[in-house]
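[job 4471] stage=fold_predict status=RUNNING
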Amino acid sequence: MKIFIWIMALVVLVPWTGAVWLSYALVDVSGDWMSANADLLSAEPQAVEALSWLGRTLAGVGESVIIGVWALGALSVAGIAWMLSKLVDYYRRTNTLQWQPTEPDAAARRNP
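[job 4471] inference complete, writing structure tokens
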């Protein structure tokens, strides 16, 4: 059961990582495009430089946020899988999932 839990965690983690990777690439490309085409918004050199810097800065901040969100999601998935595997271990040790017959009470043993 523990192996199944960890396999399911990987099944969840792979698409999560792929989606975050695509988001990272999109933010990177859009930041590059924004900084490369800053001259379309203004012809003044100082404004072009400021807009280019702003585009790369926003892309850098966005990439950092995306990495943080990915790490938070990956740690959440791993934490849930770890807690479930510990819960399975606990139930295996205590045998609470198995049916155990109860003893008849003392009165029923004395009076058959």
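[job 4471] summary: Residues 5 and 11 are 10 Å apart (CA to CA).
[job 4471] exit 0
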